[in-house]
Specification:
Order of helices and strands: HHEEEEHHEHEHEEHEHEEHE
Largest sheet: 7 strands, mixed
Radius of gyration: 30 Å
Strand content: 15-25%
Distance between the termini: 106 Å
Number of domains: 1
Helix content: 25-40%
CATH topology: Rossmann fold
CATH superfamily: Vaccinia Virus protein VP39
Number of helices: 9
Length: 317
């Protein structure tokens, strides 16, 4: 017997097999852990849902849906004369809209989707010569018509901006108000556009939507060229915007005003009746599906398409 008090043969045998015993023990531990976890569900992989869905377009739409709403065609500059129709004064009450915006002298505002400038020159006069109006449109031909209109009205505080489908190209953090008259429902990229508009607003700056009332079937505008207040508020809720008020006193439209919040998250999608509904694809259309990229501007521009009255086209602004 040695000084360790045990058999030299036994000591050498244990030392020689130590690595094998360690590997066996590790393998047993891993096997046991796997068996114990076999019944537990795996952590699901989270994939962000696409913002847009695509399907066969309706006659007045582009086949692209956002939050249950199919996006409408844009009217081309060929229909610009319709924007200057004499009856627009009593159909849309533009002076009442400007008054409800409560603009102050020196304010910096934007008319996005300005068209021929029907509202632009009114905004320019409301903010005064010390104020500024950015007139944004994606069609150069519209901006040419707008420039001529500003000369006729004697307005010099308007800056024309050729916007893009995803960006109105407005200066960041400088605007007190952005006005969207009968145009938001035609944005091919509404989420990106409203995101860019929010970046252009000052803290506390406002966004004003003027859209034909989809809740009122008597309004002679095609369904895709109208929006419910619920849908407007649902889409705005994805951005740092808080609802301020809605004015229903216009002849055919509602004016829905939001204010940019201090935080970076949007507000809950509350509605006047405490629930969220959406405009769904027309009956008979296939369910929207997510795929690829949407149609280009050339495919979406139409000469007319909003008004339901015979022989007339209806566009934006």
């Amino acid at each position: 017997m040695n000084s360790a008090g045990g058999s030299p043969f036994r000591l050498r045998t244990w030392a020689g097999h130590r690595p094998e015993w360690g590997r066996l023990a590790l393998g047993f531990f891993l096997l046991t852990a796997r068996l114990l976890n076999a019944g537990e569900p795996a952590e699901p992989t989270r994939v962000a849902a696409p913002l847009y869905e695509y399907s066969r377009p309706s006659p007045d739409g582009i086949g692209k849906w956002y939050l249950g709403r199919e996006i409408a065609h844009v009217m081309g500059h060929q229909g610009a004369d319709w924007l200057e129709r004499p009856e627009r004064e009593h159909e849309e009450a533009p002076d009442q809209v400007i008054a409800e915006l409560e603009l102050t002298a020196g304010a910096v505002v934007a008319d996005v989707g300005a068209g021929t400038g029907y509202f632009t020159w009114r905004l320019a006069r409301a903010v005064g010569p010390e104020g500024r109006v950015y007139a944004v449109d994606i069609q150069p031909e519209m901006l040419e018509r707008l420039e001529a209109r500003m000369r006729t009205q004697g307005v010099s505080n308007v800056v024309r901006v050729l916007g893009a489908e995803r960006d109105p190209r407005l200066p960041p953090g400088q605007l007190d108000l952005v006005l969207l008259v009968d145009v938001y429902h035609e944005f091919a990229w509404p989420h990106e556009m409203l995101e860019a508009i929010c970046r252009a607003l000052k803290p506390g700056g406002r966004v004003a939507f003027v859209e034909y009332r989809a809740e009122d079937p008597s309004v002679p505008i095609k369904p895709l060229h109208k929006m419910t207040e619920t849908q407007i508020r649902r889409e705005a809720a994805r951005h740092p915007l808080e609802w301020v008020r809605t004015d229903h006193r216009l002849p055919r439209q509602h004016l829905v005003i939001f204010r940019k919040t201090a935080g970076g998250a949007g507000q809950p999608a509350a509605t006047p009746h405490g629930e969220v509904t959406s405009q769904t694809p027309r009956s008979g259309s296939p369910a929207p599906r997510s795929r690829g990229s949407g149609p280009g501007r050339a495919d979406r521009t139409r000469f007319c398409g909003r008004c339901c009255a015979p022989g007339r086209g209806r566009r934006r602004r």
